[in-house]
């Protein structure tokens, strides 16, 4: 099977498994797991931030960040397509008791002007307190789109002028870093908190990191425990994440090239409508005419290729570590013959 459903389907390589097997471990709730401590220090240093906490998932890092930054009744400003709003089980309301002010952005990206227009007047009794702005980079439901760094800086200015905190859902931030050339430290300088997934394109089986100031991370560590996310000998998982950071960042550019090849093949077909601009490892396209998203996915499956119908008319393909160029060639061949 050529599994293009998501970059979460990767399995640990022998090198990664070897690193996991030889990890030094301890009880991480006591802060005694040397490998978890090493990973947290490594990612904080990479981003030029003070501290980090290792978590089970990107949903957990995002939800902990939101809980730390807000009080019940506060409002969060984000794009309508945001993972924190669409795909975290209503966690913003469930965990933090916050409302959202949703922006119709550009492929999942919002602008400083749009943020400014969403900020509520603190003296208006009718309105929730605007508290947090959350950006997503790359934007998953925007087709893996990347922010222009200048736009992020403009949003930060608006946040500073209005006492708003700024969170980054960077589940695929390394894809954006490889695609745009901005450095981790550029992001670390701007955001109050950053969430990174190591279990997506970087290929670890489990693991996300939340990065921020020392005080913020101390609070986050407490919330992680309350959410049931305090882990014990988690060093076996942290070792996979360290291995992923050391070995699997540069190669993301191959995934991006593979996505371009898929898009180029799709573009030739009469049943393909609009293709979202392909900037990283995600291809989302509209299906029309002879197929629906559902029947097209079934056709791919008959040819041992797995894709996802993300709506009635949209199909998503994601390239990753376990997809090599021979598999891309084979997929292109199938597309050509459809
Ligand atoms: C995958 C993803 C997450 C986190 O997902 P988990 O499955 O909880 O790790 C968060 N944000 C975005 C944009 C994602 O794509």
UniProtKB/TrEMBL annotation:
Keyword ATP-binding in record: no
Claim: Coiled coil is one of the keywords in the record: yes
A Pfam family the protein falls into: Beta_elim_lyase
Domain Aromatic amino acid beta-eliminating lyase/threonine aldolase residues, every copy: 3-288
Signal peptide stretch: none
InterPro entries documented for this protein: ArAA_b-elim_lyase/Thr_aldolase, Low_specificity_L-TA-like, PyrdxlP-dep_Trfase, PyrdxlP-dep_Trfase_major, PyrdxlP-dep_Trfase_small
GO molecular-function term, one example from the UniProt record: L-allo-threonine aldolase activity
A GO cellular component entry from the record: cytosol
GO process terms (BP): glycine biosynthetic process; L-threonine catabolic process
Cofactor entry: pyridoxal 5'-phosphate
Modified residues annotated as N6-(pyridoxal phosphate)lysine in this record: 200
Family: Belongs to the threonine aldolase family.
NCBIfam families reported in the protein's UniProt record: GntG_guanitoxin
Name of protein: L-threonine aldolase
Organism classification: Bacteria, Pseudomonadati, Bacteroidota, Chitinophagia, Chitinophagales
């Amino acid at each position: 099977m050529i599994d293009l459903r998501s970059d979460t389907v990767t399995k640990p390589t022998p090198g990664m498994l070897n690193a996991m097997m030889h990890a030094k471990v301890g009880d991480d709730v006591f802060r005694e797991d040397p490998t978890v401590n090493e990973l947290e220090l490594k990612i904080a240093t990479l981003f030029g931030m003070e501290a980090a906490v290792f978590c089970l998932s990107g949903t957990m890092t995002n939800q902990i960040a939101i809980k730390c930054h807000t009080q019940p009744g506060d409002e969060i400003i984000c794009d309508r397509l945001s993972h924190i709003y669409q795909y975290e089980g209503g966690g913003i309301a469930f965990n933090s008791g916050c409302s959202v002010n949703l922006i119709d952005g550009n492929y999942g990206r919002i602008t400083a002007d749009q943020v400014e227009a969403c900020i509520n007047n603190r003296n208006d009794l009718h309105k929730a307190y605007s508290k947090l702005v959350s950006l997503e980079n790359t934007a998953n439901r925007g087709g893996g789109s990347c922010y222009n760094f200048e736009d992020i800086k403009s949003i930060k200015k608006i946040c500073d002028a209005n006492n708003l905190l700024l969170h980054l859902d960077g589940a695929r931030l390394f894809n954006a870093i490889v695609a745009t050339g901005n450095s981790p430290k550029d992001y670390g300088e701007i955001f109050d908190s950053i969430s990174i997934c190591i279990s997506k394109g970087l290929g670890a089986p489990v693991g996300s990191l939340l990065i921020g100031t020392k005080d913020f991370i101390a609070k986050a560590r407490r919330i992680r425990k309350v959410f049931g996310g305090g882990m014990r000998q988690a060093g076996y998982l942290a070792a996979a994440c360290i291995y992923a950071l050391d070995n699997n960042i540069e190669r993301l550019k191959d995934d991006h090239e593979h996505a371009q090849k898929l898009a180029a093949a799709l573009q030739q077909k009469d049943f393909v409508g609009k293709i979202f601009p392909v900037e990283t490892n995600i291809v989302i396209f509209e299906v029309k005419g002879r197929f629906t998203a559902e029947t097209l996915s079934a056709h791919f499956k008959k040819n041992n290729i797995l894709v996802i119908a993300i709506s009635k008319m949209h199909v998503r393909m994601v390239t990753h570590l376990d997809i090599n160029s021979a598999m891309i060639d084979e997929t292109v061949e199938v597309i050509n013959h459809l």
